[in-house]
Amino acid sequence: MSDKRQRLKDDFSFYARNCLQIRTKDKGLQKLLLNSAQEYIHQQLEKQIKETGKVRAIILKGRQQGASTYVGGRFIHKTTHSKGVRAFILTHDGESTNALFEMTERYYDNLPSFVKPSASTANAKELHFGVLDSGYKIGTAGNKAVGRGQTLQYFHGSEVAFWMNASEHTKGIMQAVPDAPGTEVIWESTANGVGNFFHQQWKIAEKGLSEFIPIFVPWFWQHEYRKALPEGFKTTEDEDLLAKHYKLDKEQVYWRRIKVSELTTDGVDGEKAFKQEYPMNAAEAFQVSGGDGLITSNHCIKSRKEKVKPSGSYVVGVDPSRGGDRFAIVKRQGRYMFGMEAYKGEQCDSLGKNVAICKKILDKVDVVTGKAPDMMFVDYGAGADLVDRLHELGYKKRVKSVHFGSTPLNPEKYTNKRNEIWQELADWLVDESLPVQIPDDDEMQADLCASPYSYDSKDRRVLWSKDRIKDKYGFSPDYGDAAALTFAEPVRQDKAKKKLNYGKSNVV
Questions:
Q1: Residue 251 lies in a domain
Q2: Are 224 and 212 members of one domain?
Q3: Domain assignment of residue 503, yes or no
Q4: Residues 6+ apart with CB under 8 A from 63
Q5: By three-state DSSP, how is residue 169 classified?
Q6: How far apart are CA 447 and CA 126, in angstroms?
Q7: Are 31 and 17 in contact, with CB atoms under 8 Å apart?
Q8: Is residue 256 domain-shared with residue 191, that is, in the same domain?
Q9: To 10 degrees, the CA torsion angle through 91, 97, 101, 102?
């Protein structure tokens, strides 16, 4: 085999720009040159193959960023270079099925002869490469039995968030794809609200609780998502904020403005719709409350990028795990929030392990603050035994329990302690007089924005409970509660120079 033929087999990027053709909106047929989003997806998949021998990935992206085009080309490359393999693509509706098969046929029809195996068509949506005994098939989600009874090496789920019977489909598909080296399962979609299968699987992947890797593609990587500026164009304050923190040029800002305007129809909130269809980060795509929560994505964006010097009391919030949630920890010193930690499963499945986690923090002089915590606040609902044990070990002065359902300091304004401390957190975050810094992390933003509320008969704001959020949206805002716990009460910092007495014993 010549060097070029070998490279065409081994290097997909090289293969794409030399062998694959796509139809563009304005220039007709063009070679497939991977754009920024496609190149990033490719790098992540190839990295996973090197590490695990297979691909298991879930891709969250904006509209028309070329994810399906990339995966389709990737699977044509694999099925035309391997013997006895099958690729199956499942879309969310018939129109998309037709479009993706047309793209696949275009790929095949325009292949150079030296990389083009003979093909027969078994039906309208299938190609079979007889010499190789390989095949490429496209179907539409809807039938609960789809995928069952097959053996597949490559699977692409397109716009999974819009599938009917998504859970049943994926069960069948995962049974059809062997857990073997070289196999690939790729789910991709734009967001379609929260609580559905795609959102749940994305959250699980983000937490590292599945073999799927999360791959996020922001809209502003797309070169064509920009628009020539009209004369006299001026940005708003919010647009300036976005431009600063995401390094957008004015043509991108103007494109965003026009797109938001287009999406604002028939009572639809254009800003919220834009964030879902053209997200800047994963948390924004799945934002629970839109603009109706205590905290919105706009409240978080600036604080994620701020640089604030820590000062004052060093406080730790601990939200112990319950019902499979994370054991979440957040640290704060003044207007600087940092130190997100989460433990799950076997890491925190006993009192001894939980005590050890907290004790390590209490005993350690933190590199950020230059001291050990002045106070640790623990949610008593799931952490009663934890607090009691830490008190037994000598940490009574530096560990306090917080009863979320207890009476707040201001009962005329708040129904319970959880509502009160979340409002304190929100006021701290949105105060424009002083900058604050929070972890530059999508999960933190998602949890902070999971703050929908209603009003009671006394016109008091009532946050949704964690259980209600979890039931409706499929995740628990553990980092959000841990962050709110750092506002449980004012804390006097320990300015003593002497070594602190950290406890009676190292035994947990």
A1: yes
A2: no
A3: no
A4: 190, 219, 277, 278
A5: helix
A6: 43
A7: yes
A8: no
A9: -130
d(CA 450, CA 288): 5
Among residues 260, 334, 272, 270, which one has the least CA distance to residue 298? 272
Question: Of 183, 216, 206, 200, whose CA–CA distance to 67 is shortest?
Answer: 216
| Centroid of chain to Cα 64 | 19
Helices (H) and strands (E) in the chain, counts: 18, 16
Domain shared by 480 and 336, yes or no: yes
Task: Note down the domain range covering 194.
Answer: 3-217
Q: Are residues 35 and 146 in the same domain?
A: yes
Structure tokens at 217: 């593609």
Query: 454: which strand partners?
Result: 462
CA distance 117 to 76: 11
- Give the 3-state secondary structure percentages of the chain, helix then strand then coil, rounded to 5: 40, 15, 40
Q: What is the pLDDT along the chain (508 residues), one digit of tens a residue?
A: 578 889 999 999 999 999 999 988 777 889 999 999 999 999 999 999 999 999 999 999 999 999 999 999 999 999 999 999 999 999 998 899 999 999 999 999 999 999 999 988 756 788 999 889 999 999 888 765 565 667 999 999 999 999 988 888 888 888 899 999 999 999 999 998 877 899 889 988 988 889 999 999 999 999 999 999 999 999 998 899 889 889 999 999 999 999 999 999 877 788 888 988 999 988 888 875 444 678 887 778 889 888 999 999 999 999 998 766 789 999 999 999 999 999 988 899 899 999 999 999 999 999 999 999 999 999 998 899 999 999 999 999 999 999 999 999 889 899 999 999 999 999 999 887 889 999 998 889 888 988 888 888 888 989 998 888 887 777 788 999 999 999 999 998 765 444 444 444 433 3
Of the candidates 456, 451, 455, 452, the one whose C-alpha atom is nearest the C-alpha of residue 481 is 451
Strands laid side by side in the 375-379 sheet: 336-343, 327-333, 314-319, 375-379, 399-402
Cα 403 from Cα 180, distance rounded (Å)? 49
Three-state DSSP class for 202? helix
Rounded Cα–Cα distance for residues 212 and 444 (Å): 20
Q: How many domains does the chain have?
A: 3
Q: Encoding tokens for residue 44?
A: 């992540």
Amino acid at 493: Q
Assess if residue 181 is contained within a domain.
Answer: yes
Single-letter residue type at 99: A
The three-state DSSP-derived secondary structure of 242-277 is HHHHHCCCHHHHHHHHHHHHHHCCCCCCHHHHHHHH
pTM of the model: 0.76
Q: Is the dihedral of CA 317, 320, 321, 322 positive or negative?
A: negative
Q: Which two tokens stand for residue 62?
A: 């904006």
Q: Is residue 294 part of a domain?
A: no
Judge if 332 and 277 occupy the same domain: no
Q: 36 is written with which tokens? A: 């920024």
For residues 81 and 296, the answer to whether their CB atoms sit within 8 Å is no
